[in-house]
Amino acid sequence: GESVGLHLPTLSVQEGDNSIINCAYSNSASDYFIWYKQESGKGPQFIIDIRSNMDKRQGQRVTVLLNKTVKHLSLQIAATQPGDSAVYFCAVSGDSWGKLQFGAGTQVVVTP
Amino acid sequence: DAGVTQSPTHLIKTRGQQVTLRCSPKSGHDTVSWYQQALGQGPQFIFQYYEEEERQRGNFPDRFSGHQFPNYSSELNVNALLLGDSALYLCASSLRAGRTEAFFGQGTRLTVV
Fold it and tell me: For residue range A79-102, what is the model confidence (pLDDT) as tens digits?
């Protein structure tokens, strides 16, 4: 079955630095990938997505990289701000209905 | 434009009781999925509804059931509650036709005592 994992449970980053969060997946049939941000007491908030026909996609201060060869994706946050402190999840889908398989999450802590 | 709304936000139930959680999808969305998120973990897929039918189901017992109404809103029912059912229950809506991104509600925090 599908498994989705994150490489680090906690990432501590200084304000203004860049953050990189990694995620590995196991199902080669996965074709849709999403990064979510979840703040305490709230539901996951969509950040950025990427489909398997791309290897890079950029948003506002965020970039997602997809390496299908090694089944790995990453989220890069530029100039990390205190408001970026949250748990970040990667989610993977490989079926036509869009069922999402989530990783365990990475807690990002931004220090001044 | 309202996003995904869930009710109630919190509730406490006793073991063995039954609970119903409600979800209204984002305007224009026709597909609703439910997820269970235990403390410190990622969301786990329960099931998905489209055109008032359950289309996919995760690894959850039959105690978990659902329904989708003609207006696309949805309910999650859990019977014979166990302590282990305590979790944040999340509803996500999406547009089936385009397989677009799923938007989540704020969740319902269920505590079973």
Answer: 999 999 999 999 999 877 778 999
Residue B95 zone, left/alpha/beta (φ > 0; ψ -120 to 50; rest): beta
CA B23 to chain centre: 7
Token digits of residue A56: 């890079």
B2: which chain A residues are within 8 Å (Cβ-Cβ)? none
Q: What's the rounded Cα separation, in Å, for the pair A85 and A108?
A: 5
Q: Which tokens go with B69?
A: 């109404």
Span of A2-11, A72-81, B66-75, B94-103 with lowest mean pLDDT: A2-11
Q: What are phi and psi of A71, to 5 degrees?
A: 55, 60
Which residues in B lie closer than 8 A to residue A97 (C-beta atoms)? 31, 48, 50, 55-56, 96
Under an 8 A CB cutoff, do A104 and B92 touch? no
In this prediction, residue B97 carries a pLDDT of 59
The answer, for A104 touching chain B at a CB cutoff of 8 Å, is yes
**Phi/psi at A99 (5° precision):** -60, 130
Looking at every residue in chain A, the average pLDDT score rounds to 91
